[in-house]
Amino acid sequence: MKTIGFPQKALAVLLAILLILPAASGAAAAGGKDYAIINPYETVDWDTWKPFKANLHTHSTASDGTAHLDKMVEAHYAKGYDILAMTDHGVVNRGWNKKPQPVPIVSFFALVIEPQYMADERYAEITAGTDRGGRGMLDVPYGIELNALTIRLTHVNGFFADYGQGLLGRENDFETPIAGVDAAGGLTHINHPGYWLNSSDHPERATDPKNIRFFGDILKKYKSCLGLEVVIENDRATLYDRVLWDGLLEYVIPYGRNVFGFANSDTHSISSIDTAFELFMMPENTVANLRTAMENGTFFACSRNARRELGDEFVSSGDCPSVTRVTVDNAGGRITLEGKDFTEIQWVADGEVIATGNTVDLNEYEGQIGCYVRAQLLGPGGICFTQAFILDDGGEPPVDPEVPILTQLWNKIVFWLTSTKIYVLFEKLADMLD
After folding, report:
1. By the 8 A CB rule, do 198 and 239 touch?
2. Residues 270, 161 share a domain
3. Domain final residue, candidates 312, 336, 356
């Protein structure tokens, strides 16, 4: 038998290696990343916990709502809500059965008619649910919409801290109320940033790195600021707030925190109830459990309107989609959702829909995925957004560049000048003429 000499042997080995390499590189491309999936719903017991429907942004005649506090509470109760935060402008909610303290100018309805509130007996019935099979409605303590009377609607909602009664806001200044609630031991979320950005008319503002940095730096600094409203009411002003949300997720997740998306009706009238809401997953409906769910992100943001995802002509019919179970397979790099009332599940990464279906295999989309993936369930009744699943690659967080002292000083001067009422008025006028 003829033997192969050394050069021929080396050549054979080389050819074998060359044949193996494409297959090996293909395998690496298909599943080269080892994702550590941080699941915001990890603590949820899907067999025993329940979804509790909430509106965390509600107004009455104590500020600029058209219905009295007691009537607004009754209307939410009748529509099956489990949790309600009254958040009048500059007016701290100290209980639906306590007289609100209207603020001059801000509470303009109160100048015409005295705000009404709930009788103690009825308050006890609603919070206990004695006429609703024991399913009471939770009164969220110390709800308030901060930064009253700002032209650019620089609004923040505060909860669980007796802070902000009668305080008027400063243009462009989200940080002061967030810091105030934080110091008082409460929680906040940023309200409808699309109003401040006017991004419905200027979509590019939702992706502007300067604006993402502006909100992102606040979120990095204050853990008690949980996130932002990604949709309210009919989605007119918040059309691009999901775009901003995705930008913020990309910006802050590398620094070790999530940004939660909220959905609220921002209710000003009885007719606007139930346009958007949260579903909080909790073992039972208590103030302590609600706070924990808000801090951990164990909730879903639901809306009957989402113009970018569902279309301008969409009309909600039936129940909103909802999630009934989340399963994370860390070893396999997969996330699976179960739910109801949906026709499609879309998976979003870096602001783009990368996949559809109940399960996403992260290794199949490595080239399209950055530091997170989130899901949205679409159906005849509207849309349901999950919170972001963080994908940790084990890398070190980026280091913020050092800003020279003179640059910091200049930025502060510019911010002060552009935050004056006269400047903002001219700016609003220019936007209207544009």
Report:
1. no
2. yes
3. 312
Residue 59 covered by a domain: yes
The CATH number of whichever domain residue 77 belongs to comes to 3.20.20.140
Backbone torsions φ then ψ of 338, nearest 5 degrees: -115, 150
247 lies in some domain: yes
Query: d(Cα 143, Cα 156) in Å, to the nearest integer?
Result: 11
Enter the DSSP assignment of 240: T
| Residues linked to residue 349 through DSSP beta bridges, in sequence order | 352
pLDDT given at position 408: 72
Q: CA nearest 398: which of 250, 238, 182, 242?
A: 250
The angle, 0 to 180 degrees and rounded to 10, between the axes of the packed helices 69-78 and 120-128 is: 30
What pLDDT, in 10s, does the model give residues 52-98?
Answer: 999 999 999 999 999 999 999 999 999 999 999 999 999 999 999 99
Q: Give residue 289's pLDDT.
A: 98
* Residues 6 or more apart in contact with residue 195 via CB below 8 angstroms: 152, 153, 155, 237
pTM above 0.85, yes or no: yes
The range of the structural domain enclosing residue 430 comes to: 403-434
The encoded tokens of residue 177 equal 């109320």
| Contact of 362 with 33, CB cutoff 8 Å | yes
pLDDT digits (tens, 9 = 90+) for 353-403: 999 999 999 999 988 999 999 999 999 999 999 999 999 876 677 777 777
Domain contains 411 = yes
Residue ranges of the chain with per-residue pLDDT less than 50: 1-30
* Shared domain check, 421 and 303: no
Residue 178: both structure tokens together: 């967030």
pLDDT of residue 125: 98
Q: How far apart are CA 419 and CA 345, in angstroms?
A: 42
How many domains is the chain built from? 2
Neighbouring CB atoms inside 10 A of 133's CB total 7
Does 229 reside within a domain? Answer: yes
Q: How many residues does the chain have?
A: 434
Which pLDDT score is estimated for 401? Answer: 73
Give the full edge-to-edge strand order of the sheet including 260-264.
144-146, 156-159, 187-190, 225-232, 260-264
Q: How far apart are CA 295 and CA 178, in angstroms?
A: 15
pLDDT at 32: 63
